[in-house]
Amino acid sequence: xxxxxxxxxxxxxxxxxxxxxxxxxxxxxxxxxxxxxxxxxxxxxxxxxxxxxxxxxxxxxxxxxxxxxxxxxxxxxxxxxxxxxxxxxxxxxxxxxxxxxxxxxxxxxxxxxxxxxxxxxxxxxxxxxxxxxxxxxxxxxxxxxxxxxxxxxxxxxxxxxxxxxxxxxxxxxxxxxxxxxxxxxxxxxxxxxx
Length: 194
Description:
The chain has 2 domains: 9-144, no CATH class; 151-194, no CATH class. The chain is 42% helix and 4% strand. The chain is built from 10 helices and 2 strands, in the order αααααββααααα.
């Protein structure tokens, strides 16, 4: 199936390859009707998580109505959620924020308020993040001619407290072939890794 290149061309040229064209077409489709897409995503999140402890606190058990969600659930800060996040970090597996099990914690850089924040994450979110990263090179290839033909140098290491199987089980991507073996990238001593 051929992808229409003319709409996807940047000021410097068309996509570098068919895989890039498909990725750019996906971006195009997902950004056409952002209101509809965002409403759909919120409806899915509310439906999937309607029985979580967090929503029940606002008397919203079984909630799937977006307007009710907007009017009843307040905007909060990390500090407001921290006790529940700590419960999860301490091993509580009840559906506090999500009906799906927490697969791991991501950590913030610690640049706000001087300390790292734990962010509970589910497997679906990690998959979405990986999909998002897969769009970087197709977009960059539009604006940097020949980038897909060259070699990039990445200094990549993973902090011991943030290791997960998600990196180890990542699918093959020719844009992300690392010269360092996984053992060096996942080394618990970042000095040795670098």
